[in-house]
Amino acid sequence: MRSRRSCLAVPGSNPRFLDKAQGLPADEVFLDLEDSVAPQAKEQARKNIVEALRTGDWAGKIRVVRVNDLSTAWTYRDVIEVVEGAGDKLDCLMLPKVEDAAQVAWLDTLLTQIEKTIGLPLGGIGIEAQIENARGLVNVDAIAAASGRLETLVFGPADFMASINMRTLVVGQQPPGYTEGDAYHYVLMRILMAARTYDLQAIDGPYLQIKDLDGFTKVARRSAALGFDGKWVLHPTQIEAANEVYSPAQEDYDHAELILDAYEHATTVDKRGAVMLGDEMIDEASRKMALVVAAKGRAAGLSRTKSLDTPA
Ligand code: GLV
Ligand code: MG
User: Fold this and answer.
1) Is 145 helix (H, G, I), strand (E, B) or coil?
2) pLDDT digits (tens, 9 = 90+) for 271-283
3) Substitution site in 32, 34, 69, 132 for ligand 1 pocket (most atoms within 8 Å of beta carbon)
4) How far apart are the C-alpha atoms of 240 and 236, rounded to whole Å?
5) Residues 124, 66 share a domain
6) Ligand nearest to the CA of 207
7) Are both 148 and 262 inside the same structural domain?
């Protein structure tokens, strides 16, 4: 599992940002050709992105390019120019505003053709699918199953709110008048179920009030609590917060590793399926929960500070 706690948006039309992003501690960068780039700047942005991927130092980061959505005229040239120009320096393409499985299948086929033509490993470039309108959400299960290249489903709150006529202009915050519960709970859960069913990561979208770090952290904690793997970040100050929110706490990580050790010992040495760890009873289901936290902690680079022999 590769960590995607923080996924940094970088407009492809801005060489200064493309340069600066390389030094920031985001798990993923996505170089954008879509909504952060003006129509007149799209062609130059493709060139900037190819150049930045070819010559930049992106070590340790997942490198993604977001192409334009399939209702535009730009998508096929985005894919061809970026992959022919820098396919060997690219981990995934992100397809925005995905509405059905056929759109993902289209991208899969085009990628296969380019990989064959220029001699890249077949299937090497992954796909991230943004779910950001009503049709995409209704079809999310089929979208998640559409290609072996898929790595993540990404919630796009701004476009989504527009698509369903939600009565607010503030992304990430509850719509005024909705006083009970969380207006995004259904959407997040729906995306999460599809992602887990098909073994994909689930990524939360942007929080646009970049000065409001508390607001960002609060919204991030909500999706992290449900099980989301990470969130978009638009500004360096949001990166650290996302890295922290989507990593397990050290204490939880240590606890998870202890459960795995204790359970392993119980089942192999003592030949028992349920045992006590301190005051807690653990069994096979505890092991499964612990595996998730341990995997996220390891991917986030945590190291354990306790072992079964450590005095409590
Ligand atoms: C992201 O693309 C969004 O629409 O929120
Ligand atoms: Mg969008």
Assistant:
1) coil
2) 888 888 888 888 8
3) 132
4) 8
5) yes
6) 1
7) no
Q: Are residues 154 and 272 in the same domain?
A: no
For ligand 1, atom 3, the nearest C-alpha belongs to 156
The number of beta carbons lying within 10 Å of the beta carbon of residue 204 is 29
- What's the predicted TM-score (pTM) here? 0.93
* Residue 216 contacts residue 207 (beta carbons within 8 Å): yes
Q: What is the pLDDT of residue 311?
A: 60
The mean pLDDT value for 252-278 works out to: 89
Judgement on whether residues 233 and 280 belong to the same structural domain of the protein? no
User: What are the pocket residues of ligand 1 if the criterion is a CB atom closer than 6 Å to any ligand atom?
Assistant: 96, 130, 132, 156-159, 205-206
262 CA from centroid of ligand 1 (Å)? 43
Among the three residues 245, 265, 287, which one is the final residue of a domain in this structure?
Answer: 245
Same domain, 211 and 255: no
Domain shared by 130 and 194, yes or no: yes
**Measured in angstroms, how far is the CA atom of residue 157 from the centroid of ligand 2?**
7
**Of 115, 162, 155, nearest to 136 (Cα)?**
155
Residue tagged 């099980």 (tokens): 227
Report CA 301 to chain centroid distance, whole Å. 17
Total domains, the chain:
2
- The mean per-residue pLDDT over the stretch 255-265 comes to 92
Q: Which residues pair with 28 in a beta bridge?
A: 7, 62
When pLDDT is averaged across residues 152-176 and rounded to a whole number, the result is 93
In a domain, 309, yes or no: no
> Are both 235 and 267 inside the same structural domain?
no
**What is the distance between the alpha carbons of residues 74 and 81, in angstroms, rounded to a whole number?**
11
Nearest CA-CA partner of 232 in 2, 52, 4, 6:
6
The kind and range of the H/E element at 240 are helix 236-245
Q: What is the pLDDT of residues 211-246, one digit of tens each?
A: 999 999 999 999 999 999 999 999 999 999 999 999
Domain that residue 130 falls in: 6-245
Q: Is 15 helix (H, G, I), strand (E, B) or coil?
A: helix
Instruction: Name the closest-CA residue to atom 2, ligand 1.
Output: 156
